[in-house]
Amino acid sequence: MAAPGDWQSSASAAMLFPNKRAYAGLRRAALLLGRESTQADQTTSKCRLDTLNGWALFYNRRSSMKRVKICRLGCFNHRLNFAEIAKWRSRYFRITDMSLRADITVDHFENNYVYPTCNIAADMGEVEPGTNLVIAVVDQPLEENFYMRRIDANRAVVSVFPVLDILAKANIPIENYIIRCIYEMVVFVYEGQGRVDDEIYMIPHHETRGCLFDMNVFIDRIVYSCSPPTICTECKARLRARPLPTGFIEGIERELRRIRKPLYYRIEENIKRHPVVALFAASALAVLLNVAASVIYDRLKAIAQPSAAPLPSAPHAGPSEGAR
Ligand SMILES: [Zn+2]
Questions:
Q1: How far apart are alpha carbons 4 and 49 in whole angstroms?
Q2: Can you tell me whether residue 106 is helix, strand or coil?
Q3: What is the pTM of this model?
Q4: Per-residue pLDDT tens for 74-86?
Q5: What is the pLDDT of residues 64-75, one digit of tens each?
Q6: 213 CA → ligand 1 middle, Å
Q7: Residue 142's closest CA among 163, 167, 169?
Q8: Could you tell me the distance, in angstroms and rounded to a whole number, from the CA of residue 226 to the centre of ligand 1?
Q9: End-to-end CA gap in the chain
Q10: pLDDT digits over 241-280, tens only?
Q11: CA of 108 to the centre of ligand 1 (A)
């Protein structure tokens, strides 16, 4: 628990509040509570200061989040639940806006029809002040068969076209793939502070490790980093060398574990992976259900029996009593 003086003397307090006005207001409140604490109940003041510190941490966490805008480009001829993507909660980014541009132009390029990279930047528009990252989502093939491509320091495009069938076959929701790509770009923004240089293109590794930074040269390997993605040892070592927030890697890993298949498919997957265990578990469950059904039956029978039982009859009168 923080002492009343901690708030006033702590050098890190100013760092907790990048917004100077908010910091000054809460510092005044802290000073007031500090004065009260010399006269009145110390415990109450400490609790209040703890609350203020809690607010400060919450405020700091929220203000340091990266602001991400999703830009839907063109028509989507399949079910892609953008509302679910918008609802995703993270400590490191928040989706602040979701725009739509329905008309895009697909051109003939290198014996294929693709959405040209030169059109993407214009269709996405400029990055608005206060936005850290704009991610365009399209349902058209990109040049050179990329599934994700950086446009500049703060813009990237993700195509669902090359992965639709692959993900459907693996029972992975397409939303997982979009969220996975958002995480990859968000980590780049944290890591590179918005810079784009040659190094950033060297980060993804060719080997498929189920890592967030898999290059997925063979696109069908994308399934390994969509349910759930991980961060491999090599990428962790790289991130540890960067000036990232405390506990960043562990926090991102925790959130990545939430990118997974629906419950039904996870159960199905576990059954396929451990068929013998699943067989014993199913047998045990059947026995338990049988026992539970017997107990319920006995209880119901006990409840119903008193009303069904015949009422106790009067003592039988003997012939001698009847003669009286
Ligand atoms: Zn990796």
A1: 7
A2: coil
A3: 0.70
A4: 888 777 889 999 9
A5: 788 999 999 888
A6: 5
A7: 163
A8: 14
A9: 92
A10: 888 889 999 999 999 999 999 999 888 888 888 888 888 9
A11: 35
